[in-house]
Amino acid sequence: MNNKTKGIICIIASAFFFSLMSLFVRMAGDLPTMEKAFFRNAIAAIFAIIILSRTPEKFHIKRESWPDLLRRSIYGTMGVILNFWAIDHIAIADASVLNKMSPFFAIIMSALILKERATKKEWAIVAIAFFGRGQIIIRLENGVLLGGTESRTDSNIACY
């Protein structure tokens, strides 16, 4: 099996298991969002420790990397908490779509905050992504999501 095929299989497996995680978060019921996020991160930490312990570098981190790693950890944890909150409060399909929009938000934020220049092609892709997201999350006047899924208010989506 070549590397391209392995990569495609890994991407499909990743999407499948993230979908399962979303389903299990919803099925966990009335547990607080913070508790769900804690146990998800605890399980991820166990896997990370096992994988890191098998590498030659082990747990050695350069002193100058600590601030960036701390920032990355804080933002990653905030992302998990907000994603789990969205899964609990809006339709799973809507929460999944919002979660998968993160690369497009990264393009927008890099232009606004870092003053990076995106190409016309990249902006067109961002526009198409937001149009597609809009097609999935559009609501009818009676509050039913197109496609027949139970809907929540648009204010929940705005909070996410």
Whole-number total of structural domains: 2
How far from one another are the termini?
Answer: 40 Å
What is the total tally of β strands? Answer: 0
Q: What would you call the structural class?
A: mainly alpha
Strand residue percentage: under 5%
Return Rg in Å: 19 Å
The parts where pLDDT drops under 50 for at least 5 residues are 146-160
Order of helices and strands: HHHHHHH
Shape: globular
Assembly level: single chain
Number of helices: 7
Protein described:
The protein has 160 residues and is mainly α. It has 2 domains: 1-89, no CATH class; 91-160, no CATH class. It is 71% helix and 0% strand. It contains 7 helices and no strands. The protein has helices at residues 3-27, 33-53, 66-89, 92-100, 102-112, 120-137, 154-159. α5 (102-112) packs across α6 (120-137). The protein is globular and about 45 Å long. The termini are far apart. The relative contact order is 0.08.
Topology, element by element:
Layout: H1 3-27, H2 33-53, H3 66-89, H4 92-100, H5 102-112, H6 120-137, H7 154-159
Helix pairs in contact: 2-3, 3-4, 5-6
